[in-house]
Amino acid sequence: MTTHPNASNRRPARARRHGLRRSLALAAAAVFAFTANAAAAPAGGHHTPSGAATDATGSALPQLTRLLQAQADAWNRGDGAAFAATFAEDAEFVTFDGTHLRGLPEMARNFQYYFDHYTHGTRLVFTRIPVTLRFPAPRTAVMITTGCIADPGQAECRPDSRSIQTFVAVRRGGCWVLVSFQNTRVQGLLPPPGG
Predict the structure, then answer these.
(1) Can you tell me the distance from the alpha carbon of 51 to that of 192, in angstroms, rounded to the nearest whole number?
(2) N or C: which end of the chain has fewer CB within 10 A?
(3) Could you tell me which of 129, 133, 135 has the C-alpha nearest to residue 54?
(4) Closest-CA residue to 123 (of 195, 73, 53, 48)
């Protein structure tokens, strides 16, 4: 019988995959903890810089909230063009399944397809706006929100649709515009913070 020279060090593939998943989860937890501690916001999760930037950043949350309400209204009507119109012409959008859309024409076309074939009659619900709002530069805002999807005729969202979203906005011509979006389904692989 021939034995692999490293046979004593080899684990079954299933055990290796489990170990890899655990290592990745622990690494992600460490990054999450570091990021949360390094960028902790004051109570309420909303941070506005002091000084000259205050006027520009102070208008961000009301404007961004209106854009998100317009998104929810467009989703609920199944209107892909109106949903896309809440973003800048050169915006990028990453869906929960990893699809990367670039620019308004591509976004509008794909949103309409999505509404027509997958989410007809559903409602988009933003459950928290914002979770955090940061200003890494005076004319740049990064906002994290949470949301979910309610099926037709249902008051509550589907549990498997809970998501966390990251929006990046820039101030152009006196207004905040959305330039980037990332949506991630909440999987709950890590324990809740502080748990």
Answers:
(1) 35
(2) N
(3) 135
(4) 73
Q: What share of the chain is helix, strand, coil (3-state, %, to 5)?
A: 40, 30, 30
**Tokens read off for 107:** 């976004």
For the 51-185 domain, the top CATH level (class) is alpha beta
pTM of the model: 0.70
* DSSP β-bridge partners for residue 87: 178
Instruction: Per-residue pLDDT tens, the chain, 195 aa: give them.
Output: 444 444 444 445 444 444 434 433 333 333 333 233 333 333 334 444 433 345 566 789 999 999 999 999 999 999 999 999 999 999 999 998 899 999 999 999 999 999 999 999 999 999 999 999 999 999 999 999 999 999 999 999 999 999 999 999 999 999 999 999 999 999 877 787 775
What are the structure tokens assigned to 54, written together?
A: 């205050």
Q: What are the structure tokens assigned to 112, written together? A: 């309409």
Strands 175-185 vs 163-172: parallel, antiparallel or unpaired: antiparallel
DSSP state for residue 152 in the 8-state scheme: T
DSSP type of residue 190: S
Domain ranges for the chain, please list them. 12-38, 51-185
